[in-house]
Amino acid sequence: MKILLIKPIGKRFEDEQYYIDIGQGFLGTALKKAGHDVRILDCMREKLSWKKFERFVRENPYDFYAIKAYSWAVQNANRTIEIIRKHNPGALIGVGGPHPSGAAEEVFEHIPGMDFAWQGEAEIHLPQFLGKMEVQSSKFKVQSAENKNQISPFTIDLSPSTLAGIPGLIYRAPEGVKANPPYFHENIDDLGYPDWELLGMEKYIRTSRKIRFLGNYYIPVVTSRGCPNACTYCAAWRLSGKKIRRHSIEYVIGWITELKKRYGIDFFAFVDDALTADREYFVKLLEEIIRRDLKIHWDCAQNAVRFDNLDEEMLQLMERSGCFYMTIAAESGSPSTLKAMNRKVDLDLVREKVDLIKRTTHILVQGYFILGYPTDTWEDLKTTTRFSRELSLDAVQYFLFTPHPGSEIYRRLRAEGKLPKINWKRWHYGDVSVPLKDVSRETLNFYHRWAYFRFYNQRRFIVGHPQQAFAPVELDWIRDARSLIRAFLRELAS
Q1: Which string of b and e fits 299-330 if b means at least 16 CB within 10 Å?
Q2: Residue 473: inside a domain, yes or no?
């Protein structure tokens, strides 16, 4: 089968085009292994306009289009499907990623034009499912735009009873939408590495910019999948399960060494949700990086680390192995908000661990905080931002609360009728999606910007900021300043 994996057009986050979607790389590996002809189209990296994307679809027909959908980009997924249907009405269209994994029962209401969706991981059962369709449907061929009456191949030959046996599949049945339980493979080394050629690594490297101001060739690495925590605002477990499944240390070392050898990459980002949860495993990984003298620079700043088990030995190993930047997620400075989030955080321990990091290493520390959780009051907001300024942090990210589909708080707000009609364009961390009881949307948006101003207006940032942790990085201050100014102006205009 001829398959196109699509990362759709989207302009909300300027740097999105520079991030490599390793999820599609893993899926590409699995589909190619099953004998399919696969291509990945990253519309963001290719800087495609809708007009150019339509020309591509018209000139390059495929049997199956797999679209990755985030909640903030539901409209983009719908427009992508409309263009595909216009020029290739007989093709099969599936949607996967965070949104269908979180909104399985509702996803056909949000994205009605697709044939099916997928929740959880797809590397094992999606290739099998497509293989069955290819065998059972002799009519399954790419159709031309002229044959607009061709019914979707998804309706051919496969009965609902057959579909019910496909883990992760979300589909329409006569009695309504069915969402089969997801499948999470135990030995994730079996899935192989992302297909770097399909991802087009050379093009990413040529177009890369200084993500987080920290250098080119910045590539993600995963050591595990799954997160056992039950924070009410998070739906990450919908994608990768609650049980932590770890790659072998040899697998992780192989990931790093292959990219260094083939592409000269020496900046990496560890992006899994449970990087430091298993202290013994993590220490062994760091010791192996040091023993092999890999000479890499890395951070764990995209997904925050478990800070309760950080100690001086681990921190020094992190620094020796190349770590220069990390994130801890206190999420709130208000004990009542933390309790509502089911976020088991000891604020005194946060202070202790940040002080330990700064006292024993040169690693830069970023803090994550959520503003506008539904139980937040005006005092809670001020308590959180004040707490963030009391810590010896080098950077912060204040996220405006977003109720992700699949999270406990999303389910609760829906049940209480507080999300009657969702504007998915607002469903991101830079805008207020759910107003607070005693704080208006406009006030909260303003306070979000004011919080950043107050944090970076502290004397230690104005007089001079420690630069030693940036020693391995060549900074382009002019380009970075322009990016910051553009981002600031967009916020003022929004």
Answers
A1: bbbebbbbbeebeeebbebbbebbbbbbbbbb
A2: no
